[in-house]
Design goal:
Order of helices and strands: EEHEHHHEHHEHHEHE
Strand content: 5-15%
Number of domains: 1
Shape: globular
CATH superfamily: P-loop containing nucleotide triphosphate hydrolases
CATH architecture: 3-Layer(aba) Sandwich
Distance between the termini: 17 Å
CATH topology: Rossmann fold
Structural class: alpha/beta
Helix content: 40-55%
Radius of gyration: 17 Å
Strand order of the largest sheet: 3-4-2-5-6
């Protein structure tokens, strides 16, 4: 085992309107406050959001999600994956310098939202193989019915209750597979609680990683 500490990679996943972005922001601020670093030190924590809609690929994804364009299901899946690969080296660099990386969505969302369309689970997973693997994935568990009752629901392409129900089934499959295959820790958080309670549950899961991690950066689904 390496004696050098690196940053932790934490991913927050969940259905649309499960509170991911709110909780990711709260967790980012708490991690920032919990770690002491000098002015010249690397960032203590960075928050990434997928898809990153600021890149050239991200702008194509944004137009698709807003139903301003149509793309083949295979093509849009590969664009989502490419958007993550655009930041793979950035994630690795941050972790290596000791920075905690917090991601709002990641490869698991890409697989879940495409596989529910009927595409092969194995095909959906293949483009993600080799991406930096999270040390901890926090799945915000909420029923599609409760999510649908939250403000702003339905503004984007996938925000329909039937879609979210199917997506939830794929997320369950991913979570079971991650645990069985030892691909990093997958923890379900009850997102039906109030915002403060959810934030505390997230913190309890993340706090042990605050001081850093020993060992190499793993890669998703790579076999030795």
């Amino acid at each position: 085992m390496s004696s050098t500490k690196r940053g932790a990679f934490v991913v927050i996943e969940g259905l649309d309107k499960s509170g991911k972005s709110t909780q990711a922001s709260l967790l980012h601020d708490r991690l920032q406050d919990s770690q002491d670093a000098g002015d010249t030190a690397p960032p203590k924590v960075v928050l990434l959001k997928f898809p990153d809609r600021t890149t050239a690929i991200g702008k194509m994804i944004d137009a698709y999600l807003r139903s301003e364009s149509d793309l083949d299901d295979h093509a849009i899946h590969l664009l989502f994956s490419a958007n993550r690969w655009e930041l793979a080296s950035t994630i690795t660099a941050y972790l290596t310098q000791g920075t905690t990386v917090l991601a709002d969505r990641y490869a698991f969302s890409g697989i879940a939202f495409t596989a529910r369309k009927g595409l092969s689970y194995e095909w959906c997973r293949a483009p993600e193989v080799g991406l930096p693997a999270p040390d901890l994935t926090l799945f915000l568990n909420i029923s599609p019915e409760v999510a649908a009752a939250r403000g702003g629901y339905g503004l984007e392409r996938y925000e329909r209750e039937d879609v979210q129900t199917d997506v939830r089934r794929v997320f369950d499959k991913i979570g079971r597979a991650m645990q069985e295959e030892g691909e990093g820790k997958w923890v379900e958080i009850d997102a039906g609680k109030n915002k403060e309670e959810v934030a505390e549950d997230l913190w309890r899961a993340v706090e042990p990683l605050v001081t850093g991690i020993h060992g190499p950066i793993n890669r998703l689904w790579e076999t030795a």
